[in-house]
Amino acid sequence: MVLKAVCVLKGAGETSGTVYFEQESDSGPSDHVPQATRKSFTPLCSDSAPVKLTGEIKGLTPGEHGFHVHAFGDNTNGCVSAGPHYNPHNKTHAGPNDEVRHVGDLGNVTAGADNVAKINITDKLLTLAGQYSIIGRTMVIHEKADDLGKGGNDESLKTGNAGGRLACGVIGITQ
């Protein structure tokens, strides 16, 4: 069974997009779960099953833009109320391939001359189920490139110096 989620990104300006998430689960409903409750049965994901992100973001300046899952699904004050990067293990900020990093650190996406970033990311720390699920949290695209924690200052180890938040949206379950 594949778990799926979606995030519709919107900002105050021209930036918008859609991100799709998929993750293989260990199993679907088991035979001992009554048929009537199988739709509400929540499978557990394998710790080793990566999450695949696809989609596109429009209205960006050409170049790299930081791309992160933030802690809260609260967009009541725009993207600011989404809080810091999702970091349940209290690690420092880093790149998506680094051993020590925030769960929400996805590095950069690159917009071309057409102002569009195509997303095709596979991440080993994100999960769509269980205690550390990203469902209900906020995806954010930033104005600047993420320095992946290598900027040599305190802010680099928190945010990657990725700058302001151009657009965001809450990650939700989909079919």
From TrEMBL:
InterPro entries: SOD-like_Cu/Zn_dom_sf, SOD_Cu/Zn_/chaperone, SOD_Cu/Zn_BS, SOD_Cu_Zn_dom. Keywords: Antioxidant, Copper, Lipoprotein, Metal-binding, Oxidoreductase, Palmitate, Zinc. It catalyses: 2 superoxide + 2 H(+) = H2O2 + O2. Belongs to the Cu-Zn superoxide dismutase family. Its EC number is 1.15.1.1. Its cofactor is Zn(2+); Cu cation. GO terms for molecular function: copper ion binding; superoxide dismutase activity. Destroys radicals which are normally produced within the cells and which are toxic to biological systems. It is an enzyme of class 1 (oxidoreductase). The keyword Transmembrane helix does not apply. This is Superoxide dismutase [Cu-Zn]. Residues 44-171 form the Superoxide dismutase copper/zinc binding domain. It comes from Menidia menidia. Binds 1 zinc ion per subunit. PROSITE patterns: SOD_CU_ZN_1, SOD_CU_ZN_2.
